[in-house]
Amino acid sequence: MAKKLLILGGTTEAAALARAATARFGDDLAVTTSLAGRTERPGPIPGQVRIGGFGGPAGLAAYLEQHRFDWLIDATHPFAARISAEARQACEAAAVPRLLLLRPLWRRHPLDRWIEVDDMNAAAGIVARIGRRALLTIGAGEIACFSAVAGVRFLVRLVDPPRRPLPLRFCEVVVGRGPFELADERHLIARHAINVLVCKASGGAATEAKLVAAREFSLPVVMLRRPPPEPGDLVQTVEEALDWVAEARASPEAKRVS
């Protein structure tokens, strides 16, 4: 009988993991990817796809037990702290081995002008002091933190068009899904006369081009620091995650949760 892997997804890495796991293990591994449902048009993902929440750690633990999953890989966004915490709690309750696939942080270049902050309210408090045209690439969830900012025109990049007007005094929306090319990021910054970038320390290659473009234009970058990762097994690449599964398949007792 095939082993069963649940991937908590919604990221480029999660989709790549589903493709790679299907290619490497074939019919010997049944892959299910769970999406939160925040993106309206997710890209194609091999295997089974589940959309929607679980109802907290207890709900996820029940789902793992009901469907008899052998392993869970948390490949959610580095800022999905609540989901990762619930995954850890659920796997502990259901005794299901868990791996965190966490993309590496961006490396700071000597010419980068990063201003790192611990929360989005701090970012909102800084942006008006250093720029008048800001590129906002933080997702939809925390845009309201910038609602009181005056004197700044925001260019907001989102994966999906907003369903209602954004709570910003002056803004324009561009819709796009990574990966983004460096030439396109240069054009975006120049066309809109951007003089400050606001983003999260998400890491990964898909959105790194905006940092390179900001460096070339000598723009300040207000960057939200990552929350600390959940404890447990952690890898940074899809290949390492596949090796973890292969090791678990070969020695299931080595990955058993006590």
Number of helices, where a helix is a run of at least 4 consecutive DSSP H or I residues: 7
Strand content: 15-25%
What quaternary form is this? Answer: single chain
Distance between the termini: 24 Å
Based on DSSP secondary structure assignment, what is the total number of beta strands?
A: 12
Describe the structure.
The protein has 258 residues and is of the alpha/beta class. The protein is built from seven helices and twelve strands. It has helices at residues 12-25, 56-66, 81-94, 120-130, 182-191, 209-216, 238-250, and strands spanning 3-8, 29-35, 48-51, 71-74, 98-101, 113-117, 133-137, 153-158, 171-175, 196-200, 220-224, 233-235. The strands form two sheets. It has a six-stranded parallel sheet, with helices on both faces.
Topology:
Elements: E1 3-8, H1 12-25, E2 29-35, E3 48-51, H2 56-66, E4 71-74, H3 81-94, E5 98-101, E6 113-117, H4 120-130, E7 133-137, E8 153-158, E9 171-175, H5 182-191, E10 196-200, H6 209-216, E11 220-224, E12 233-235, H7 238-250
Parallel strand pairs: 1-2, 1-4, 2-3, 4-5, 5-12, 6-11, 7-8, 7-10, 8-9, 10-11
Helix pairs in contact: 1-7, 2-3, 5-6
Short characterization:
This protein is α/β, with parallel strands linked by helices. It contains seven helices and twelve strands.
Search tags:
single chain; 258 residues; alpha/beta; six-stranded parallel sheet; 7 helices
